[in-house]
Specification:
single chain, 645 residues, alpha+beta, Gyrase A, domain 2, 9-stranded mixed β-sheet, 4-stranded antiparallel β-sheet, 22% helix, 25% strand, globular
Length: 645
């Protein structure tokens, strides 16, 4: 193995160049600033749609979404009903070769750590850790217990408004999803009762109330319980949690704001670990707000299989779930979310250091937290949001701390590399303002394309529905070309598609009188952006800056356009923006001896060209299914000058 040909790909989801530059200039990101100084910088045009699943698959393969066979995060399947939709992150849906598979085919060792769309891995000799994480609030395959919050007491406890959920993906989704399925808030009401029969309580502890904390395994009927007792003791109110009413075996003894250690459990033969954090405890009113993290499996998430236990022993249990769902639905506050971000990043840092001790020629890591933070707090960055000032300083501080975690991760990675190694920091898409949600399936219902059941206006009647939409601006005609229950004949599909396109092009926000759809893509236009083949939708549309589609049906008469509320809905997004717009554009930083330090590419490059370019810099062939080409680095003005004697 030639160390000079080693490639470390550090993927950062949802990195917007403008805000990244802002925080670098503020002096918050010294490691990133050093990397910019040492690297060639590229403005990058993302996939259509500018979205996580097709984006990271394209980065890994150099293939367009149509070649990959995955058009979006939610993937209908030919021959199946339209409300049975596959998880677009499933590696089995992808038809193409990835970079680490290229390394492996050439006899070079590779390591893949939490890279979206890479699980389950194909046959091969590379090391694989996860790759089925909970991106886009989809349940991770290795989630044994979902996150949640136990709430009790007065009405204000646990009564937060649930998020609009722009993606329309209900919590608990694993492999199939229904377009009209209701989601879950994650709030877990418990009943406070007079404490009875507790033994071995601490000296001076005065019990006030107790409750039972059920733990239901994700997707299973198996349930375990913990017992909790709240009381007074010197130093303030405390909550003791144990497997039985015996405090001698307590798994947590918490004051407000405190975290438990790891609590081990098992569900349907799989071991897991989770933690608890006491957010609020009101003894007088018997009020409780106790956050519960995801219980990620401690086995089964690696190849080779025994690596899982090795990582848990060396790095601790996996801290995976840190998505937007918990903070937007009031399960956790911003401080808790940031603590999850920190723990997630720290676990990855430990795992990178541990795994890097193995031989490797290619190392592929993805980190998702910038994406989540912008979804939660993006309005604070942009005065065009009508509620921009709400909690602005708190949200800006949250964003700055998240970017500091990115900088810490960059520092941890760079310290492990040799001078001749290639380091590529790449992202899948940018991020920009979302001030309004456009309820697209409500619009289709109002326009006569989608019908609902007579007895349930929130349930789709597929026998009368001609078209429906999935996030983000992906439209399907309910035709016989997709499944035998479709009601639109093949020869009528172009007619329905043209009517849909006309309706979308004429869409106006009634609050402003402004047209809000800036691109409608039929088959020919989609193909120009790499969306083609049997899994491509019938139509795509992109929206003006500030707008994002939401797919969940609302009660009839609800407004189609809804203002987003900072901290409660997505106030920054990406999937609805045209890939050529500044809102969707992202960046890549590549440090390599052949590239001029501090240089910047003269023109934007396409995401599809990164994999062939990185392969060439690493001295391996491009992935065999790549549509992209190796960039002409000299023409872009980033190739280092050739030294002559």
């Amino acid at each position: 193995m030639n160390p000079g040909h080693r490639l470390f790909l550090l993927g950062v989801d949802g990195l917007p160049p403008g805000h990244f530059s802002r925080f670098v200039e503020e002096g918050l990101l010294p490691n990133c600033k050093a990397l910019i100084r040492e690297s060639a910088s590229f403005d990058v045009v993302p996939t259509l749609p500018a979205l996580t699943a097709p984006g990271w698959m394209t980065i890994a393969s150099g293939a367009h979404p149509g070649t990959i066979g995955v058009s979006s995060i939610l993937q209908p399947q030919r021959g199946q009903p339209p409300d049975l939709i596959r998880n677009g992150f499933d590696r089995r849906l992808s038809r193409v070769e990835y970079l680490w598979e290229t390394f492996d085919a050439q006899g070079l060792p590779a390591i893949v750590l939490k890279y979206p769309g890479s699980w389950p891995p194909r046959e091969g000799g590379w090391v694989q850790v996860d790759g089925a994480g909970g991106y886009a609030d989809i349940t991770c395959e290795f989630e044994a217990v979902s996150s949640g919050a136990y709430v009790a007491g007065p009405a204000e406890y646990g009564q937060e408004k649930p998020a609009h959920d722009a993606c329309g993906i209900p919590r608990g989704y694993r492999d199939h999803w229904r377009i009209d399925a209701g989601g879950e808030s994650g709030l877990l009401p418990v009943t406070p009762r007079a404490p009875l029969g507790w033994r071995n309580l601490p000296h001076g502890f005065e019990p006030v109330f107790e409750c039972v904390l059920p733990i239901l395994a994700t997707g299973r009927r198996a349930r375990t319980i913990l017992h909790a007792v709240a009381g007074r003791i010197a130093g303030g109110p405390r909550l003791i949690v144990a497997a039985s009413r015996d405090a001698a075996g307590a798994v947590a003894d918490l004051g407000a704001g405190a975290w438990s250690g790891w609590i081990q459990g098992g569900a349907a033969g799989s071991a897991y670990a989770l933690r608890l954090k006491l957010l609020e405890l009101d003894l007088e009113r018997r009020g409780l707000h106790l956050y519960r993290t995801q219980g990620h499996r401690t086995d089964g998430f690696t190849r080779p299989a025994d690596l899982a236990q090795e990582l848990v022993l060396a790095c601790g249990p996996v801290v995976e779930w840190a998505g937007t769902f918990d903070v937007m639905n009031g399960l956790a506050d911003l401080d808790t979310e940031l603590e999850l971000y920190d723990a997630h990043t720290a676990w990855l840092e430990r795992a990178v250091e541990h795994l890097a001790a193995r031989p490797w020629s290619g190392f592929f890591l993805q980190w998702h937290l910038i994406e989540y933070a912008h979804h939660v707090a993006g309005a604070a960055l942009d005065g065009d949001h009508p509620l921009h000032a709400r909690d602005q300083e708190r949200h800006l501080a949250f964003l700055r701390q998240t970017y500091r975690l990115l900088d810490r991760l960059v520092g941890s990675v760079t310290r492990l590399l040799e001078p001749g190694d290639t380091l590529a920091l790449v992202s899948d898409h940018g991020h920009d303002l979302v001030h309004s949600l456009f309820h697209v399936n409500d619009f289709l219902r109002d326009s006569g394309f989608l019908a609902t059941a007579g007895d349930d206006p929130l349930r789709v009647d597929w026998s009368r529905t001609r078209a429906y939409a999935l996030f983000p601006g992906v439209v399907y005609v309910n035709s016989r070309l997709w499944w035998n229950g479709g009601i639109v004949e093949a020869e009528e599909v172009p007619i329905v598609r043209d009517k849909l396109a006309s309706a979308l092009r004429g869409l106006v926000d009634p609050r402003t009188g402004r047209a809000v759809v800036d691109g409608v893509f039929g088959p020919r236009e989609m193909a120009a952006f790499g969306q083609s083949g049997p899994q491509a939708p019938d139509l795509m549309f992109t929206m003006a800056r500030g707008y994002e589609p939401a797919t969940r049906l609302q009660p009839p008469g609800s407004p189609v356009f809804v203002l987003t509320e900072p901290g409660r809905e997505l106030t920054s997004g990406h999937g609805s923006f045209h890939p050529l717009s500044p809102s969707a554009r992202t960046l890549a930083l590549i440090r390599h001896p052949e590239l001029a330090p501090g240089s910047r590419a003269a023109t934007p490059v396409h995401l599809v060209d990164l994999a062939p370019t990185l392969a060439a810099l690493a001295g391996v062939r491009p992935p065999q299914d790549a549509d992209g080409r190796c960039l002409d680095l000299a023409a872009l003005g980033v190739r280092a000058a050739v030294r002559t004697r």
